[in-house]
Design goal:
- The chain is an alpha+beta fold.
- The chain is 40% helix and 28% strand.
- The protein contains 4 helices and 7 strands.
- The strands form 2 sheets. Strands 4-3-7-6-5 form a 5-stranded antiparallel β-sheet. Strands 1-2 form a two-stranded antiparallel ribbon.
- The longest helix has 44 residues.
Amino acid sequence: WERPPQYLPPVILILEYGFFLGVFTQTPGMRLTKIACVSTTDGKPIGIIAAAYSLQRVSRWLPSSSNRNIRVVDQKGQLLATPGINVFAAPEDLSGHDVVKKVLAGQEGDGLFPHSGAGEQHAGEGLFFVTYKPLPSLGWGVLTFVPYQAITDRAAAMRRQNLLFAIIVIGLAIIGGLFIMLLSRRQQALVS
């Protein structure tokens, strides 16, 4: 019995997982796969680990909110995951949006972006504050949309709360000053 060449086991594993991935990617809603080659400390490959998740499961990991929308796009700019995604529908092509172009170019940041929302399940139309971050290991991007109106409404509510707090503090200071003035006049009247 002669020992097979070192490259043969990894090649067999690659062929097996290639078949698995071919079948997996044909299943509706199944598009997230991560493969890693496992090696020994001296660098010799000993196997392959693959993890396959449905897009529906990944979408469930994303928190949903009435005024915030998190989206994951693939390297082509197609929508992969968002809360409430219909995994059996054709993927939405978001590659035409400026923010998607930026995240797919490897840029990270945030800014205000207009959105029409035509034909898309989105939080609405108008101006959105978008935070975007690429996932370089996958070539994907994560985008968080918050309507700009929601941000300005929250800021206005905080200003009103701070104004009310300031009025209360000033009122207490005036009442405290009047009380101290009254006590000091009584003390002066008792002394004289």
